[in-house]
Amino acid sequence: LTPQSTAGETTTDWSLLARIGQKDEEALSALYDRYAGLVFSEAKRILRDAGAAEEILQDLFFQVWRTAEKFDPAKGSLAGWLLVSARNRAISKLRKRSGASEELDENGVAFRVDVESHAAQKVLLDKVRTVMASLPENQRAALECAYFEGMSHAEIAKKTGQPLGTVKTRIRSAMEELKKVLR
Amino acid sequence: LSEAEHIRAEELELLALGASPEREAAAIQAHVSGCEQCAAKLAEARGNAALLSFAAKQEQAAGTVKAELMARIRANRESEERNAWPRKVQLPPEPIQPQRRARVSWWTWALSAAAVVLALVSFGLSWQNRRITAELQSERHAADRLVHDREQIEKYVGVLAAPDTVTVKLAGMGEAAGASGMVKFNTKAGAVLYAADLPQLPAGRSYQMWLVPKNGAPISAGLLGPGGHAWGSMWTGDVPPNTAAKAFAVTVEPVGGVTQPTGPKVLLGAM
User: Fold this and answer.
1) Which chain A residues have a beta carbon less than 8 Å from that of B12?
2) Residues B268, A88: Cα–Cα separation, whole Å
3) Chain A residue with minimal CA distance to B63?
4) d(CA B191, CA B187)
5) How many other C-beta atoms lie within 10 A of the C-beta of residue A152?
6) How far apart are CA A166 and CA A144, in angstroms?
7) How many CB pairs under 8 A join A and B?
8) Which of these, B123, B271, B265, lies nearest to B184 by C-alpha position?
């Protein structure tokens, strides 16, 4: 991970969001610097198109700017929401679905790990990569087909020629391993 | 899915990963929207799924993206300020002392600046107009979907609440051997089908539900999929009132349906 800037590293997401709600451009700039790399990398991994991923990145942060005051901290994490929303938008674009954009106060995401600094993000990146590398190939592939390609379990079963139940079990086992990074 | 039952953790995990088929996803979402316990579990499953974002190779977006974003929010902010009520009173500009030697140059710069501002304002208004139109259209579609869902739910409840409703279990057949279904049938209120694990339909095809009467040819009970009446994983079917049924079946037919079954059976169940 190459931080674009270290501005605002010590400020929490919530205080940045509160300032964005007051139309503070510096706060949006700091939030962008904090998460743009993660959001862009995820969207590009799905779309394999830097231009399309940049469009999603910009639209997502523009939505944060417009609707920051709607975000309810009780419903989850801003970082989690950004990552899940970027993923959903990229998958909608990839599969040419007419995905409605999520509002900040909907679809809570409980992301139980601190990623508010680039150092913390780096630690998590290393942990997740280690787990992914340790997964059996078929489990890792099933997980990636679902998350990065937007395939349903039935589509994965058809693609791999495996029974539906096997695919579900592989996904579940892989998720159990992945969740260990939270412990 | 019953409102009284909670969604299993594995189903929530699949939904969070985006691995649930659209019909199942819609049914789960419908339950979650009214169940705080499942909503909390789904939020946690989404957080766990988001860990996968960290498996992507890390790259940086072009620096111009941030510059464009900041320009966009400034334009948005200025537009909102212009449209705010009450409008700010525009004071006349301070009189400018003419400078004889620079007079031609000053006007040239002023006109150029005005042209640039007008072009930016025009672009901003045009962009805003497109966005508002798109948002309105999206809201209309959402409202239509809600009306449709409400009608389906009312019908669904009408069938389930009737004391003389019967249950018919359907088994998967042929290429859909892994599928299963259940029909709740009421001779007055109609039929509701819940189907699980039906294979993805090929292009130009739809599932069609059939009531096989005790006497006579099968009667179409409606389409499942394109053009059908669905709410989540449940479909409502219209059948002539007081028809004595012998069995229910689901076949693969051309989109729009047929008057008599022609395609392969995917679900079948006798009364």
Assistant:
1) none
2) 36
3) A4
4) 8
5) 23
6) 16
7) 174
8) B271
